[in-house]
Design brief:
Elements (H helix, E strand, L loop, with lengths): L5 H38 L1 E7 L2 E7 L2 E3 L3 E2 L5 H24 L14 E3 L5 E2 L1 H18 L5 E2 L6 H10 L1 H4 L14 E3 L3 E3 L4 H18 L7 H25 L12 E8 L4 E8 L4 H4 L6 H15 L9 H9 L15 H9 L3 E16 L5 E19 L1
Parallel strand pairs: 3-5, 4-6
Antiparallel strand pairs: 1-2, 1-7, 8-10, 9-10, 10-11, 11-13, 12-13
């Protein structure tokens, strides 16, 4: 065997040392990456993602709990804050999704954060309607699919309500198998549109009245009940007309989102009807200056300001503005207001046996109940748009 020269031996030793150092560096880097991955994975939340009719396993960085009682009446402040955050995050997510290149979806990336529906124990029909409208708005704006997280762990009663109102169908997610029907309560799938909803509203009121009549046949010959249903039909049509012609005037809202949403619920045991109409346009206080009856509101608002001084800001006067608008005199032409239709809203309550009207718009709340004085409250958290809700006991 030929003996290597000294220089060759030195070169071989140096090469071996370099290879060893590189291997050592790679091993160290690999161990470091494994440690980092372990720390990252430890901070992540393992979730099940339902999107586009498929189910994936993924990870999330943060979960934001929904209110345990998601209701815009019994728990307004917490629910309204949650709706506002959902709206902002859906807008941010849709902007990011529109910039992201389309790719084959085999695994989902890490989800930055999600709303945890598993903690929700109760959801009211009107709150579910507003929630569905926010998801519907985000889908219509950018056409992207919105994932739902851990649906299999949601409360069965909440799943049943959202399923009946059309929430899962809206997101193109298969209806959950473990849903259970709500006792004595039936909720109609929400209707939405950009035109005055004569046929859609008639289908809602007709379905509710037929359910009541099938449970209590004598109501079919009750003129007071049938008259109340007709008054309710006209009031809801007026509410959708407000949304179509006035709520989105002079706004930057895209045409596909200039819509209204409506739903109804019925408890056949207590004979309780609940109907809600919602739009995401300008609020009632914001559109009042464009109303032909605004001089009436303005004069009484000025008198109110002289009485209390400049203690309250404009937003804090939203409740007062809505209350004054509801008290405005009837038009001499007997035509629709604005068509704001406020007299029609109140007439449903006045001609019912027991009823309540509730309006939420920006930072104002107005309540009109049968046999009680009208009440108006200022809210800390604004609601985007206007929600009109009727509760009737027949």
């Amino acid at each position: 065997m030929r003996k290597l020269r000294f220089k060759t031996q030195v070169w071989l030793v140096r090469r071996a040392r370099k290879r060893l150092s590189r291997r050592t560096a790679r091993n160290r880097l690999r161990r470091g990456l494994v440690a980092v991955a372990a720390r990252v994975q430890k901070s992540l939340i393992k979730v099940r993602v339902d999107i586009e009719g498929r189910v994936y396993r993924g990870w999330a960085r943060e979960k934001r709990p929904m209110p345990e009682n998601f209701c815009l009446e019994d728990n307004y402040e917490e629910s309204a804050k949650c709706i506002g955050l959902i709206r902002d995050r859906l807008a941010a997510s849709s902007a990011a999704e529109s910039k992201r290149k389309r790719r084959t979806r085999t695994t989902l990336p890490i989800i930055p954060g999600y709303n945890d529906f598993t903690v929700m124990k109760h959801c009211s029909p009107s709150a579910a309607l507003v929630l569905a409208s926010e998801f519907d708005r985000a889908r219509a704006l950018n056409g992207w699919s919105i994932p739902l997280i851990d649906v299999h762990r949601w409360e069965p009663e909440v799943v049943a309500l959202l399923d009946e109102i059309g929430f899962f169908e809206l997101l193109e997610i298969p209806r959950p198998d473990h849903k259970v029907p709500q006792k004595d309560i039936q909720i109609l799938q929400f209707q939405t549109g950009r035109l005055v909803a004569r046929e859609e509203v008639a289908s809602i009121t007709g379905r509710l009245s037929s359910l009541l009549i099938s449970d209590t046949p004598k109501l079919g010959n009750d003129e007071d009940f049938l008259g109340t249903i007709m008054q309710l039909l006209g009031a809801i049509q007026e509410a959708t007309e407000n949304s179509c012609h006035h709520a989105y005037r002079n706004t930057t809202v895209p045409d596909q989102n200039k819509r209204w949403w409506a739903t109804g619920a019925i408890n056949t045991k207590t004979r309780h009807l609940n109907l809600s109409v919602y739009d995401q346009g300008r609020s009632i206080p914001d559109t009042l200056p464009e109303w032909d009856k605004y001089p009436f509101v303005q004069s009484r608002l000025a008198r109110f300001r002289r009485f209390i001084g400049e203690i309250l800001g404009e937003d804090e006067l939203d409740a007062v503005k809505i209350r004054l608008a509801m008290d405005a005199p009837r038009s001499s032409t007997l035509q629709s207001y604005r068509g704001k239709g406020f007299p029609l809203f109140k007439r449903v309550v006045e001609q019912s046996r027991d009823a309540k009207l509730r309006i939420l718009s920006r930072r104002g709340e107005f309540i009109y109940e049968k046999g009680r004085h009208p009440r108006a409250y200022s809210l800390n958290t604004p609601l985007n748009g206007t929600l009109v809700e009727w509760d009737l006991w027949v």
